[in-house]
């Protein structure tokens, strides 16, 4: 597929951040869809929402994220549709886009396996009892690395955040003292914004006093807290959508998947069958357990493309290309995307 454009890079800027990681991350159109589907927090707005509503919400998040930015020349740019929005509408959209990019940065840069709204994880983090501030996101490591705590902010331009807003966001991530089952915690603030030219970029801020030893003066560090976070809620929304859309069982990369299709978006979404069955049976899914098994994301991605082309029964238009993306949490997306010149 040489010569076909598959998204673009997003620049990472560091502000008082003692980190020597990559200056860019590659973001494909399939990865953008996967992050938009997985980062939402419908439970915070609709308690006990039915499966069909969750499926609609996932499609909606992906569709409006696509409508906000577009790839060109190896980078992501602000779309004309985004530029025409009113100020309050831009605020909402930049917040959603910030969450999507926060997930992709945490996975690509910090080795996070599961990343979502902090309400998705139980037992919850241990908070500083002297503050009511709470951050947006929690990410659990794939191996023995730190958990990440992220406050995500979206802005229409880089300079649209006051120093007071930045400091308030830093206070939100500092409110988390410990994450059960994780020996250390990395805390940072991510601002997702457009440059003056309209190019999508992110800036990471490292709050002072947010090192891996926790907040100075923490009355209960809980160094020996060995509880595992249960991931049932984390995976429940995508499992409910799979049920609502009559997912079929398909073998991808040597693993059985439940695969369902969003026809309006032209994509299919997959969740490992073991995860699907555990959520359906309301069984605990301990973080770090072997529920995902020996996941080879490259093989899953390759098999998903082959499935769409050869077995799905869908017609791939000649002006599109088949792309796939598989997250470290096992969630897969495959679809046909426009071939861009």
TrEMBL record:
It comes from the Bacteria. This is Uncharacterized protein. It comes from Gordonia westfalica. The lineage of its organism: Bacteria, Bacillati, Actinomycetota, Actinomycetes, Mycobacteriales.
């Amino acid at each position: 597929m040489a010569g076909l454009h598959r998204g673009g890079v997003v620049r990472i800027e560091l502000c008082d951040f003692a980190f020597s990681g990559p200056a860019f991350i590659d973001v494909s159109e399939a990865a953008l869809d996967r992050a938009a589907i997985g980062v939402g927090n419908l439970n915070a707005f609709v308690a006990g929402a039915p499966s069909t509503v969750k499926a609609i919400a996932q499609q909606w998040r992906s569709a409006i994220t696509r409508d906000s930015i577009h790839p060109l020349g190896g980078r992501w740019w602000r779309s004309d549709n985004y530029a025409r929005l009113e100020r309050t509408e831009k605020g909402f959209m930049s917040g959603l886009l910030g969450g999507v990019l926060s997930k992709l940065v945490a996975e690509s840069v910090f080795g996070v396996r599961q990343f979502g709204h902090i309400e998705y994880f139980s037992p919850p983090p241990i908070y500083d009892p002297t503050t009511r501030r709470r951050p947006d996101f929690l990410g659990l490591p794939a191996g023995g690395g730190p958990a990440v705590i992220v406050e995500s902010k979206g802005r229409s331009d880089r300079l649209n955040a006051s120093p007071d807003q930045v400091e308030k966001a830093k206070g939100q991530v500092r409110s988390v003292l410990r994450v059960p089952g994780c020996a250390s915690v990395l805390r940072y603030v991510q601002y997702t914004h457009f440059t003056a030219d309209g190019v999508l970029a992110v800036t990471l801020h490292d709050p002072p006093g947010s090192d891996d030893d926790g907040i100075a003066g923490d009355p209960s560090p809980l160094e020996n807290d060995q509880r595992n976070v249960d991931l049932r809620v984390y995976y429940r929304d995508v499992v409910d959508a799979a049920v609502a859309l009559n997912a079929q069982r398909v073998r991808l990369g040597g693993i059985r998947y439940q695969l369902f299709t969003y026809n309006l978006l032209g994509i299919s979404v997959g969740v490992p069958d073991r995860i699907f069955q555990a959520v359906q049976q309301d069984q605990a899914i301990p973080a770090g357990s072997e529920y995902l098994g020996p996941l080879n994301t490259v093989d899953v991605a390759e098999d998903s493309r082959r499935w769409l082309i050869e077995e799905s029964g869908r017609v791939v238009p000649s002006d599109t290309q088949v792309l796939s993306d598989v997250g470290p949490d096992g969630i897969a997306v495959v679809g046909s995307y426009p071939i861009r010149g």
